[in-house]
Design goal:
Strand order of the largest sheet: 3-6-2-1-9-11-12-10
Number of helices: 31
Helix content: 40-55%
Structural class: alpha/beta
Shape: elongated
Length: 810
C-alpha cells in the first residue's frame, strides 16, 4: 500500500487533474489518494464566509468565482455525454455552499463550527472530480471514501486533536485493495460534526492513513521538486535536498518550509515510513526523501525562515532568582492561544526574550501587562519591549553538532553583510541555530547563507559602477571578457547591477547585459549620488560593491554614506584620500566600524601594487625612511616625448587623446595630481600630513598657472614654447632627462621637476611608466622598487578589477 497526497496546485486546473490521474494510473500497487481542494478554493471559501458575516454582498461574487472554477475544470475534463451527471452532483454541492453562505449573511455570524463546515467543501468537490475522472478516463475501479466517517477527532472544530485508536480502526476496516480516493483536511468529532485538521491538514490526513495502513511509503505531490535548501523564490541557486531525516524535516517545516505540514511527520516517524516530496508537474524529476536515516554527506541540510515575527522582551531586577516567573509568562500566553516560536533567556535571569507572530502582539502585550501588573507597578520589571517587522532565519542539520564553527560561520557571514542580529537561540540537540533579523534583510540573509553553506565556495559580487568614461568603459569590457574565466576558475559570479554616469543611472538586479550597457544606460533615471545610494539600499543585495571611476568631488563626498551602509567601496578617484587628514582618517574609521572594505590601490600608480606593498611593509613592522617616486604617467609621457621638433602643447594634447592625463590637463601639469599621490603615500606611511604641507616647485610659467579654462591653458603652452625649449635644451646639454620627482621623508614631502642623470634609477623610465623607490629599515641600501605603466584607462581598469578580485578572495 502506498499513500499519495496531492496538494491544491496539483489539482488547480483541468490539466493538473489529468497529470494527477496519470500518476495514479501508473501505480503498480494498491493506493490511497488524498486530495486537497483546488488551488485557492479554501481561501475563497473563508473569504466568502467573512464577507457574508460582515454583511458584504460581495460574498456572492466570491462564491461565483468558486463555482466557475469547478465548472470550468469539469467542462475541460469530461466529454459532453459524461458531463451532465457529474455537473449535476457538483451543482448540488455548490448550491449547498450558496445556501450556507446565505445563512451566515442573514445571521451575521461565522462560528468555528460554521467555518469548519464551510471550508470542508473544497476537498469534497475536488476528490469527487478526481474519482469520476479516473473512472471514465482510465476505467478505474475507484472507491471514494468519506473522510468524516474515518478520521475522528476531539476538541475544537478547527485543528482538532486526533482520536488515534478510533481513526486507525476505521481506516484499517475501510481501506483494502485497489484505488481509494479521499478528501484531505476533513474529519468529524464525537457528535459527527464536521471538523478540520487545521490549515495544511491534507498532509496530516495522508500521514494518518499511511500510519494506520502501515504503508510502504507516503508521497506528497506538490508543485516543487522536493524540499529545497532554502526558498527558491528568494534564492535562485537553491536546489532540492535529496535526503533529510524526519527531525530535520520537522525543523525546516516549523520554520517556514511550506512544502510539508509539520504534524505530517509524527504519525509515520515511529513506523519509519519514508516520505517522498515530489513534483506533480515533473513526475520523473528530482525529489526529496524524508526518513529515519541521517545524511552524513552534508553538515547543513537547509535554511528556512519565518516572516511577520515580533520580538517581546521582559526584563527587570525583580525577575532574578524568582521561581515560577517563566511559568507565569508562558502560561499567560498559552491561555490566550498564542504560540511562542522563539525563546532566549539571559543566564543572569534578568530578561526573557521570545518571538510570536506579529498579528498577536497586541493580545500578548495586554495579557502580560495584566498578569504582571503588580510587578510593573513596583518597578520590579520594566515595561514590555516590543519590536515588530522581524523574521527568524534557521540553519538546520543533523550533523551540525559534529562540526565546530558552524555558528561562527553563520554569524560572520551575516555580519559581513551588515545584517544585524537581534536574538539567537540554539537547541540542546544542536540541530537548529535560529536568529532574529529585520524582515528587510531576509532575501540578503538567505542568499549569503546559502552561498556560504551550499554553493561550493562560489561567491557572488553585486557591483554598482559610477563613471563609464575611459576607465569605466574599459572596466566593463574586462568584466565581460573575464566572466567565463571567473565563473569556472575562481567560482566567482560578478554581476554588474547598477551603472551611472553624470546624467543617468540604470539598475537591473538580475545583472546588466554588458554587451548592450550604453543603450540601457540611456534609458535610465536621472542620476543623483544620494538617489543612487537609495537604489542600492532598496535592493539590499549581498556582497554589494560600489566602484567609483570618476574624478568627481561630489561622488567622493558621499563615500561616508556608502561605508555607513556597509557597502564596499573601490575607487580610482584620489580626491577623498587626498582631502583633509580628518576626512581621510574618518573614512578609514568608518570602513573598520562598519566592516566595509575601502580599497583605493589605483589612487597611486594605476594598476601597480604600490599602496598594497606599502601597507604590507607597515603591517609587517617595517618603517619607511624615504620614498622617491615618479608618480605621473602623464608627465613622464610628456617629457619623454618632448623634443626639439614637436611643441610642448602638441605633446600635452597627445597625452590627453591617449587618456594619460585627467580631462583637465592642468591637474597633471600643475603638479596637483602628483601632490595627491605623494600625500596618500605619506599618510599610508603613518604621516599626519595635509596637502598644504607639501612643498611643490612648479615648472609651469605664471600665465599657465593662472589660466581660467583648458582652452586658455593650452594657448599659454603654445605661447611659452621658448620657455619649455630652454628647459629641454638645458637638460640635454647635461645628458639628463626631465622628470617630476616626488619625495617623502620624516621631514616632509616635496615635488619638483628635476634633471635626472644616467646613474639615477629614474633615468631609463620610458613612456608613461611610474617608478617608486621605498627606502625602509629593511631596505636601507637597496630600495624596494616598483616599476611599470602608471597611466592609461586599461591599466587603471585592471587595477580596479584587481581590487575587486582581492575583495572577493576576502
Amino acid at each position: 500500500m502506498k499513500v499519495l497526497k496531492f496538494g491544491g496546485t496539483s489539482v488547480g486546473s483541468a490539466k493538473a487533474f489529468q497529470l494527477v490521474a496519470k500518476i495514479v494510473q501508473q501505480q503498480k500497487e494498491d493506493v490511497c489518494v488524498v486530495v486537497s481542494a483546488m488551488g485557492g478554493v479554501t481561501n475563497l471559501l473563508i473569504q466568502a464566509g467573512e464577507q457574508a458575516k460582515n454583511k458584504d454582498e460581495k460574498y456572492v461574487d466570491t462564491f461565483l468565482l468558486i463555482k466557475q472554477k469547478h465548472i470550468d475544470a469539469i467542462n475541460a475534463l469530461f466529454a459532453w455525454e459524461n458531463r451532465t451527471a457529474i455537473l449535476s452532483e457538483i451543482i448540488v454541492r455548490l448550491n449547498e455552499i450558496n445556501s450556507f453562505l446565505e445563512g451566515i449573511y442573514l445571521l451575521g455570524d461565522l462560528s468555528e463550527k460554521s467555518l469548519a463546515r464551510l471550508s470542508s467543501f473544497g476537498e469534497l468537490l475536488s476528490s469527487y472530480i478526481l474519482s469520476e475522472y479516473l473512472k471514465i478516463a482510465y476505467n478505474k475501479d475507484v472507491s471514494l471514501l468519506d473522510a468524516t466517517a474515518l478520521i475522528k477527532v476531539e476538541g475544537n472544530y478547527l485543528g482538532a486533536k486526533l482520536n488515534q485508536n478510533l481513526s486507525y480502526k476505521n481506516i484499517k476496516k475501510a481501506i483494502k485493495t485497489g484505488v481509494h480516493i479521499m478528501p484531505g483536511f476533513i474529519c468529524s468529532n464525537e457528535a459527527n460534526e464536521i471538523c478540520t485538521l487545521g490549515r495544511g491538514g491534507s498532509d496530516y490526513t495522508a500521514a494518518i492513513i499511511a500510519a494506520a495502513c502501515s504503508a510502504k511509503v507516503l508521497e506528497i505531490w506538490t508543485d516543487v521538486s522536493g524540499m529545497y535548501t532554502t526558498n527558491p523564490k528568494l534564492v535562485s541557486s537553491a536546489f532540492p535536498i535529496k535526503h533529510i531525516s524526519y527531525q530535520e524535516a520537522m525543523e525546516l517545516s516549523h520554520f517556514g518550509a511550506k512544502v510539508i505540514y509539520p504534524p505530517t511527520i509524527q504519525p509515520v516517524l515511529d513506523l519509519k515510513i519514508p516520505i517522498l516530496i515530489k513534483n506533480t508537474f515533473d513526475a520523473s524529476g528530482a525529489f526529496t526523501e524524508i526518513s529515519h536515516k541521517v545524511n552524513n554527506q552534508s553538515v547543513v541540510s537547509g535554511i528556512s525562515h519565518i516572516e511577520g515575527i515580533a520580538l517581546l522582551t521582559l526584563e527587570g531586577a525583580g525577575m532574578v532568582g524568582v521561581p515560577g516567573f517563566s511559568m507565569r509568562l508562558f502560561k499567560t500566553l498559552a491561555e490566550q492561544k498564542i504560540n511562542v516560536i522563539f525563546i532566549t533567556q539571559a543566564s543572569s535571569e534578568h530578561s526573557i526574550c521570545f518571538g510570536i507572530l506579529q498579528e498577536e502582539t497586541a493580545k500578548a502585550q495586554k495579557s502580560i501587562e495584566e498578569e504582571f501588573a503588580y510587578e510593573l507597578s513596583l518597578g520590579k520589571i520594566n515595561p514590555l519591549i516590543l519590536e515588530n517587522d522581524l523574521a527568524i532565519v534557521a540553519l538546520v542539520g543533523d550533523n551540525m553538532k559534529n562540526h565546530q564553527g558552524i555558528s561562527g560561520k553563520m554569524f560572520n557571514t551575516l555580519g559581513k553583510n551588515n545584517i544585524n542580529i537581534r536574538a539567537i537561540a540554539q537547541g540542546a540537540s544542536e540541530r537548529n541555530i535560529s536568529t532574529v533579523i529585520h524582515k528587510k534583510h531576509i532575501s540578503k540573509a538567505l542568499n549569503v547563507l546559502h552561498e556560504a553553506f551550499f554553493e561550493d565556495h562560489r561567491t557572488q559580487l553585486n557591483v554598482f559602477v559610477i563613471g563609464v568614461g575611459n576607465v569605466g568603459a574599459k572596466l566593463l569590457n574586462q568584466f565581460e571578457q573575464q566572466k567565463e574565466y571567473l565563473s569556472k576558475s575562481m567560482h566567482l559570479n560578478l554581476n554588474v547591477v547598477g551603472l551611472a554616469n553624470s546624467k543617468t543611472m540604470f539598475f537591473d538586479e538580475e545583472s546588466i547585459n554588458l554587451t548592450n550597457w550604453e543603450k540601457l544606460l540611456k534609458q535610465g533615471k536621472d542620476f543623483d549620488v544620494k538617489r543612487f545610494l537609495s537604489e542600492i539600499k532598496k535592493r539590499n543585495l549581498p556582497n554589494s560593491i560600489v566602484v567609483d571611476n570618476t574624478a568627481s568631488e561630489q561622488i567622493s563626498d558621499a563615500y561616508a554614506l556608502f561605508l555607513k551602509e556597509s557597502i564596499a567601496l573601490i575607487t580610482c578617484n584620489k580626491i577623498a584620500c587626498s582631502s583633509s587628514l580628518h576626512n581621510y582618517q574618518y573614512l578609514k574609521t568608518l570602513a573598520r566600524k562598519y566592516n566595509a572594505p575601502f580599497l583605493y590601490e589605483t589612487n597611486v600608480g594605476a594598476g601597480l601594487p604600490i599602496i598594497n606593498t606599502l601597507q604590507n611593509l607597515i603591517a609587517s613592522g617595517d618603517k619607511i625612511i624615504e620614498i622617491q617616486a615618479v608618480l605621473s604617467g602623464s608627465l613622464n609621457f610628456i617629457f619623454n616625448n618632448y623634443n626639439a621638433t614637436t611643441s610642448f602643447a602638441q605633446i600635452v594634447e597627445e597625452a590627453g587623446k591617449q587618456g594619460y592625463t585627467e580631462p583637465d590637463p592642468r591637474i597633471d601639469l600643475s603638479g596637483v595630481d602628483v601632490m595627491r599621490k605623494i600625500l596618500i603615500l605619506a599618510r599610508e606611511s603613518g604621516a599626519s600630513i595635509e596637502m598644504d604641507d607639501i612643498k611643490s616647485v612648479s615648472f609651469l610659467p605664471e600665465k599657465a598657472l593662472k589660466s581660467k579654462s583648458v582652452a586658455d591653458f593650452m594657448q599659454t603652452l603654445q605661447e611659452d614654447e621658448v620657455y619649455f625649449k630652454n628647459l629641454y635644451t638645458k637638460a640635454v646639454n647635461k645628458n639628463a632627462q626631465l622628470k617630476v620627482v616626488a619625495k617623502y621623508t620624516e621631514k616632509g614631502a616635496q615635488l619638483a621637476l628635476e634633471e635626472i642623470l644616467p646613474e639615477n634609477p629614474f633615468y631609463n623610465l620610458k613612456g608613461k611608466d611610474n617608478m617608486v623607490l621605498f627606502y625602509t629599515e629593511r631596505y636601507k641600501e637597496q630600495p624596494l622598487v616598483i616599476k611599470g605603466a602608471g597611466a592609461g584607462a586599461d591599466v587603471t581598469a585592471s587595477g580596479i578589477f584587481a581590487d575587486i578580485i582581492k575583495l572577493a578572495n576576502q
